[in-house]
Design brief:
Layout: H1 3-12, H2 15-38, H3 61-67, H4 71-76, E1 88-90, E2 106-108, H5 110-125
Parallel strand pairs: 1-2
Helix pairs in contact: 2-5, 3-5
Length: 128
């Protein structure tokens, strides 16, 4: 969701609704933290939980959300960006026989994308 949409919400929602949205987001952030810890931490440092983990050439989640202006777009579409398409599979997706997987694939639900973005958004807000 872009800045304009966030501003629109501020003007449309009653004052108590903003706090309610923050509470509603907490389970999504927690789900994103779990998905990131289980799957993304194979390659990325996702938080202080695995600060010495990840692959050294792979950017950490905190670096991505703090250094890139388009981080949210990147997180929403990460599964389409190299090298992710060779690793990410979605539940129910059939692997084409001509595209064998060379490592254990990461299997996600499409709802996991929203959870990961919510988790990353929480990382971006921690130091503000």
């Amino acid at each position: 969701m872009g800045i304009k949409a966030h501003l629109l919400f501020l003007f449309i929602l009653p004052a108590g609704s903003i706090a309610s949205l923050a509470q509603d987001a907490a389970p999504l952030v927690a789900a994103g933290a779990r998905v990131a810890a289980v799957h993304c931490a194979r390659c990325h440092v996702v938080d202080e939980v695995n600060v010495f983990g990840g692959i050294s050439s792979t950017p950490s989640f905190p670096l991505l959300v703090k250094a890139l202006a388009d981080w949210e777009d990147r997180f929403q579409s990460f599964h389409t960006r190299p090298p992710h398409p060779s690793v990410i599979r979605f539940e129910g997706e059939v692997i084409a026989p001509d595209k064998p997987v060379s490592i254990v694939p990461v299997e996600l639900n499409y709802s996991d994308i929203e959870a990961i973005v919510a988790y990353a958004r929480s990382l971006n807000k921690r130091d503000q």
